Amino acid sequence: MAIRFEGREIELLPDETVLEGLERQGWTLPAFCRQGVCQCCLMKAKSGAVPAAAQKGLKDGQRLQSLFLACVCRPSEEQHLELERYGSSQEFPSRVERVERLTEQVLRVSLALPSDFSHRAGQYLQLVRPSDGLMRPYSIASLPGEALELHVALMPGGVMSGWLRGAVGEPVTLRGPLGDCFYLEGEPERPLCLAGNGTGLAPLLGVLRAALAAGHRGPLRLYHGSLRPEGLYLWDELRALAQRAPQLKLVGSLLEGVPGTDGSLSERCALRALALDQAVLQDGVHAEERVYLCGNPELVRKLQRKLYLAGVPLARIHADPFVGPPIGS
């Protein structure tokens, strides 16, 4: 069985996996458990049919991107696989077009969209400063075809976030897109639950925009968590979306501050003095929902576990935890 990888034709031995065959030919690829569990060996099929066994345990969004597990992939002669590394190859030149201060802690950064950069709203990219190679991951809140919108948390002593404040006009390099936090077409009636804190709103806003642009008809509920009311940035923009989309419910989750309703949209736009996970569970869990969780890793893990125990399959829970760099780096 022959496969194609990085311009070369590779002949696999009988019963040899893709990972074993590439390693035998001298390539070094990420791998750990070698049993299809840890998912370190994810690769992407550029063309050809991926064996179903090589996608077992992957999320719907990963399968949609033709990702598979190289350590358990044994293709047949009929599948004609051409492979590439996942998320590590292509770079795109861009520049910072606009920087807007949304709050004391959050910037909205707009980047020029490279002509051949193909993404889905909610995925993330690696932003590289060309002068020294400094790199940080940021989620994409904008729809395809628009300037790339990133939400950047101003970290104490943060090198990249501090630089971006005054970087209008500066060149940057993009790597990606990466991740499976994006709206899946073909499920217009399925309920969607989007929950996150801080700049975890960025991918959730991307998913929401994509769902509304696709004419999603099922219930949509978005929860944004913050310590205080001023941390619920872009709340007016979200309310404007809710005015145009009667199936959309917004909840602001606050640990401090006075809760209340929000004007004419009081039934669908509320502020609650509750932790984010409590606010989500208070409204009930629907086993048929597709769920997107973004933000603080501890919060994401906690809510992911609670929703799974409440009956939502892990395959329909898209978890995108944000892990920040050490202070001053």
Describe it.
The chain is an alpha/beta fold and 329 residues long. It folds into three domains: 2-85, Ubiquitin-like (UB roll) (Roll), CATH 3.10.20.30; 91-178, Translation factors (Elongation Factor Tu (Ef-tu), domain 3, Beta Barrel); 192-321, Rossmann fold (3-Layer(aba) Sandwich), CATH 3.40.50.80. 19% of the residues lie in helices and 31% in strands. The chain contains seven helices and 18 strands. Strand 17 (290-295), helix 7 and strand 18 (317-321) form a beta-alpha-beta unit. It is globular. The N and C termini lie far apart (47 Å).
Brief account:
The chain is α/β, with parallel strands linked by helices and 329 residues long. 19% of the residues lie in helices and 31% in strands.
SSE blueprint:
Layout: E1 2-5, E2 8-11, H1 18-24, E3 42-47, H2 60-64, E4 67-69, E5 82-85, E6 91-101, E7 106-111, E8 124-129, E9 134-139, E10 148-153, H3 159-164, E11 171-178, E12 192-197, H4 201-213, E13 220-226, H5 235-244, E14 248-254, E15 260-261, E16 269-272, H6 276-282, E17 290-295, H7 297-309, E18 317-321
Parallel strand pairs: 1-5, 12-13, 12-17, 13-14, 14-16, 17-18
Antiparallel strand pairs: 1-2, 3-4, 3-5, 6-7, 6-11, 7-10, 8-9, 8-11, 15-16
